[in-house]
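Dock adenosine-5'-diphosphate; give full complex structure.
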Amino acid sequence: MRLAHGATIWFTGLSGAGKSTIARAVGSLVDGPAEVLDGDELRATVSSELGFSAQDRDRHVCRVGYIAELLARNGVVALVPVIAPYARARECVRRRHVERGSTYLEVHVATPLAECARRDPKGLYDRASRGELHGLTGVDDPYEAPSAPDLRLDTTDLDVPTAADRVVRLLADRGLVP
Ligand code: ADP
């Protein structure tokens, strides 16, 4: 699939929801420049001094949004699997894109907490249940689910190719696939 122009596709949702997996699957379908902005990598680099307070989470999301918009404006499909738990920071990223004429689409990967904890790909829920980790989004830290995402995917009963296909259909519906 070749897109008409760059765009940011932000995947928000709990840890283990499937954001990175779906972002990578969509990236592999894009014929042209596409970049997955990996949340852990960005935390280790551009946000290395930040922690997980509400303020630091918002700062992190704003920084990632800034980078994504730069990429989107320059023809890249920026795929962003970053939790972004607070609506105000997501709104700030959306506004930044709108002001610069860049496309921003929000995909809520709405896999329920119980399923995320069952998958637990990074062992975070296990560590939280042992009391070794505090401030885990959805467990003892807030997650503000988007009220009007461009797409909502609960991957409990959805395989990865089907989930990626839903995103591709969203892009087509929005006229991004010529
Ligand atoms: P996140 O980026 O949201 O933290 P990951 O993509 O890293 O989540 O992990 C999700 C885990 O769930 C992976 O181990 C993935 O293989 C698994 N998984 C099972 N079914 C799906 C699905 N339909 N969509 C996405 N991930 C799935």
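Observed: The mean pLDDT is 97.
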